[in-house]
């Protein structure tokens, strides 16, 4: 591994307080750091994020291959990171079981953040499963609003998205200001490829969701996830039958 990129010697501009617009100096600093980290490895980016933002650094994971790889690196490179999963109540049992395997193997604590209403309460309120009639509202209520609550008191959060996953994610910076959640957003695997992630995952024996071996390229909530359709699109199995390809965590100000 090459030497980790050196941190800028000058003081970093302070992040904005909640409700405050980030300063030009703060945004310029993030852009400069993002550009500098373009040549860094995921390991180096994790170490940089921890050095700069711990103990107010968080990581969200849905236990995809990318998230599992990052989770395997946290104990060594970013041990104080607060890790959470958005437990919508609609996750596959295989996903929940994977969470237990990851925690046991790497000694992690992963907070399962739930919406205010349980699935039965939520469906009763809306006269049935809202994912059938208004999936955008379902994602907003059971993911976006939960993360907005979790963001309080944090400075930065990390995700496992890659630029080559979809056109929506193609312009994701390594470091950016996330307007939606009022956090610095860090994407250590932005430059990674699917093949690169899976090669390392298998080489290092990192647990992953067995649904990937059954034809699911991307795993989310079970009502909105299907097997691959043969197109080669990693997101094709999500919200099949409509134009929706994202839950909203990484769009509309999510660092893109």
Description:
Helices cover 35% and strands 9% of the residues. It is an alpha/beta fold. It contains 8 helices and 6 strands. Strand 1, helix 3 and strand 2 form a beta-alpha-beta unit. It has one domain: HUPs (Rossmann fold, 3-Layer(aba) Sandwich), CATH 3.40.50.620. A 6-stranded mixed sheet has the order 3-2-1-4-6-5, with helices on both faces. Helix 2 crosses helix 3 and helix 3 crosses helix 8.
Short description:
With 256 residues, the protein is of the alpha/beta class. 35% of the residues lie in helices and 9% in strands. It has one domain (24-224): HUPs (Rossmann fold), CATH 3.40.50.
Give short descriptive properties of this protein.
Rossmann fold, six-stranded mixed beta sheet, 6 strands, globular, alpha/beta, 256 residues, disordered N terminus, 8 helices
Radius of gyration: 18 Å
The major β-sheet equals: 6 strands, mixed
Q: What's the β-strand tally? A: 6
Global structural class: alpha/beta
**First-last Cα distance:** 29 Å
Instruction: Give, in order, the helices and strands.
Output: HHEHEHEHHHEEEH
Flag low-confidence runs: 1-10
**Which strands sit side by side, in order, in the main sheet?**
3-2-1-4-6-5
CATH homologous superfamily placement: HUPs
The CATH architecture term is 3-Layer(aba) Sandwich
- Helix content range of the residues, please? 25-40%
The number of helical segments is 8
Q: Which range does the strand content fall in?
A: 5-15%
Oligomerization status of the protein chains: single chain
The total domain count is 1
Question: For this structure, what is the CATH class?
Answer: Alpha Beta
Average pLDDT value?
A: 87
């Amino acid at each position: 591994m090459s030497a980790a990129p050196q941190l800028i010697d000058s003081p970093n501009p302070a992040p904005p307080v909640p409700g405050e617009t980030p300063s030009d100096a703060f945004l310029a600093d993030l852009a400069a750091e993002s550009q500098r980290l373009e040549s860094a490895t995921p390991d180096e980016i994790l170490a940089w994020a921890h050095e700069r933002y711990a103990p107010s650094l968080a990581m969200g994971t849905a236990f995809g291959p990318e998230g599992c790889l990052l989770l395997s690196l946290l104990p060594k490179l970013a041990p104080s990171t607060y890790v959470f999963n958005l437990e919508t109540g609609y996750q596959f049992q295989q996903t929940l079981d994977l969470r237990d395997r990851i925690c046991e193997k790497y000694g992690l604590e992963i907070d399962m953040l739930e919406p205010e209403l349980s699935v039965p309460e939520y469906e009763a309120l809306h006269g049935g499963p809202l994912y059938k009639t208004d999936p955008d509202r379902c994602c907003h209520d059971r993911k976006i609003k939960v993360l907005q609550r979790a963001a309080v008191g944090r400075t930065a959060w990390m995700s496992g998205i890659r630029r080559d996953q979809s056109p929506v994610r193609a312009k994701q910076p390594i470091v950016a200001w996330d307007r939606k959640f009022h956090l610095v957003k860090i994407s250590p695997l932005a430059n990674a490829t699917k093949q690169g992630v899976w090669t390392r995952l298998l080489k290092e024996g990192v647990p992953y969701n067995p649904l990937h071996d059954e034809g699911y390229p991307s795993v989310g909530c079970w009502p909105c996830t299907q097997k691959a359709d043969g197109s080669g699109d990693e997101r094709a199995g999500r919200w099949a039958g409509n134009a929706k390809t994202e839950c909203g965590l990484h769009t509309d100000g999510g660092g893109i």
